[in-house]
Amino acid sequence: MTRAETCVVACAEAWRGDGAVLASSAGLIPQLGARLAQLTFAPELLVTDGEATLLRDGRAEGWLPYRAVFSMVAAGARHVMMGASQLDRFGNQNISCVGPWERPRSQLLGVRGAPGNTVNHATSYWVPRHSPRVFVERVDMVSGIGHDRGAHEIRRVVTDLAVLDFETPDRSMRLRSVHPGVTVDEVIAATGFALTIPAGVPATREPTEEELKLIREHLDPHGLREK
Amino acid sequence: MDKRVTIAEVVGEIRDGMTVGIGGWGSRRKPMALVRALVRAGKKDLTLVTYGGPDVGLLVAAGCVKRVVTGFVSLDSIPLEPHFRRARSAGTIELTEYDEGMLYWGLLAAANRLPFLPIRAGLGSDVMRVNPELRTIRSPYADATELVAMPAVPLDVSLVHLNRTDAGGNGRYLGPDPYFDDLFCLAAKRRFVSCERVLSTEDLIETGPPQTLLTNRSMVDGVVETPHGAHFTSCVPDYGRDEAFQREYATTDWAAFRARYLDSGEDDYQKAVA
């Protein structure tokens, strides 16, 4: 079992119990997670090809052009896992630009659909490199809103080191589990704000035999997840 | 009802300072032949309204743009658009940054001649901070929900690219997504559609089911046949994105790229990239 495989399963877990909602994702690891969830414990999930086709186990089952995605967003029938260039303790996220918005040091994507996603439906984040540059006290441009700004629900943050959630009284970020081989201190050192650390932090669950087989032989036979 | 025009005639209708809507999405089915012509013509102070891709990059790099109204600018396979990034850091363009769904709503409001449409997207986010003119509105019903009053985004001109049209402006997309090209046309005073092939109405009808006929004659003022006119963006099923050329675009010095590909006409461009 590799770290990437642990991350795929941790991403899949974010969609557990969601029912027939659109599972959208940015990046290969969350995409594999959504497809794995659909194949195993969340069979009702809707997954797309990243363009306008709905897929069930890799085969077309429906049509979803962008205008229909916006309707699912507004209806709340979606749980997206986005990326984050910056993320704060209440789950405010930035993918727009770094530095002052008026004249950014680094222009990134723009807010994209993050404001609409976070105000309308469940949102999770995938962070491939857990570092204090991403986990900051204050984001430069609030693209996705956090719990202190009226987010619908920030469900999970999955990183290369750990799984985080917001199951605290003030709905600020908490360490939920550390991936096998990672210590709690490593996560604390890689986070630029004070996390809630429960008394005993469990290890992120390992993939089952069935999940490993699906990832390795069916979903990603060329091992692109390890890159 | 023959609305066929040349690229030069379309460019002739676009004056400095106009608000120009550009269809497609990111690096997908952009009216690139028309964009290249705007670059060559040296238009100034344009406000671009678009789901941004290399259309934004080319026009920004050429100094044609005053303001971009968008939710993102991306080349899809290359996430960040280099010319847009550079201009933002240099402070040489203005930006109106909306959530993608807000932009859709703004076009929908303009298309329906409404001053605004209510939407949740934007609430609580810094979109409200960087667009201080945005207002919220409270539902007059028992729920009393507070919503963003997304203002209409009216356009002077719209430019879109479709797979097939007839000479009158009936148009069809053949790929998986119409994007918002119909709304761009409905939100604009003057509407120009470039396309891969102009067919007789009879032949156009034969190319697919009725629900993929995205534009009708009332939505279009001019039709331009520009084969390969979305290059280097995708225009499936006629052709996919030219990834190698897009990489060259993203990594080549602007002056060199412009001299190599843009300064002569569209025919020379198409020969150079064939």
Automatic annotation (TrEMBL), chain A:
<dbReference type="Pfam" id="PF01144">
    <property type="entry name" value="CoA_trans"/>
</dbReference>
<dbReference type="InterPro" id="IPR004165">
    <property type="entry name" value="CoA_trans_fam_I"/>
</dbReference>
<comment type="similarity">
    <text>Belongs to the 3-oxoacid CoA-transferase subunit B family.</text>
</comment>
<protein>
    <submittedName>
        <fullName>CoA-transferase</fullName>
    </submittedName>
</protein>
<dbReference type="InterPro" id="IPR037171">
    <property type="entry name" value="NagB/RpiA_transferase-like"/>
</dbReference>
UniProtKB/TrEMBL annotation, chain B:
<protein>
    <submittedName>
        <fullName>Acyl CoA--acetate/3-ketoacid CoA transferase subunit alpha</fullName>
    </submittedName>
</protein>
<comment type="similarity">
    <text>Belongs to the 3-oxoacid CoA-transferase subunit B family.</text>
</comment>
<dbReference type="Pfam" id="PF01144">
    <property type="entry name" value="CoA_trans"/>
</dbReference>
<dbReference type="InterPro" id="IPR037171">
    <property type="entry name" value="NagB/RpiA_transferase-like"/>
</dbReference>
<keyword id="KW-0808">Transferase</keyword>
<dbReference type="GO" id="GO:0016740">
    <property type="term" value="F:transferase activity"/>
</dbReference>
<dbReference type="InterPro" id="IPR004165">
    <property type="entry name" value="CoA_trans_fam_I"/>
</dbReference>
